[in-house]
Sequence to fold (141 residues):
Amino acid sequence: MNNNPAISLIMILTVFLLLSSCEKEKPLSEAIIGKWEVISMNQITFENNVKKAEIILYFGSGEMRYHFIEGGSGIFYDDDDDYLFSWTLTGSQLTLSNLYNEDLVVDATVDGDLLIWTYKETDPQDSKKSYEFIITSKKIK
Fold:
């Protein structure tokens, strides 16, 4: 038996990493279910595909929330108002319908208790300008 503490430490860390990597993460379709409070929104402005500006807006508690319900329905809370919407998920592409003037299609990920979605759009008045939005929400009970 080898009494080298470095080898023992490496063996313990290896076992720990193997055990922790065996935990199965929930698929996005399950992880998204629940209430999410928006904590920030980044808006990155591009002109001719060159980053020109970045603004980060922070939201207060209860200011903006999304509630994703099993079966594809949801409730959007904006301060004291609430609006029903429907949602679908294809891979990591989340589509929110019946909430805005047109469907909002975003790339979504859940990382622990954070839901992050991103989308891009072109400025309707100036095709040389585009915007990337990154919305970060925290899961609430």
Observations:
- Confidence is low (pLDDT under 50) at residues 15-23.
- The chain has one domain: 29-140.
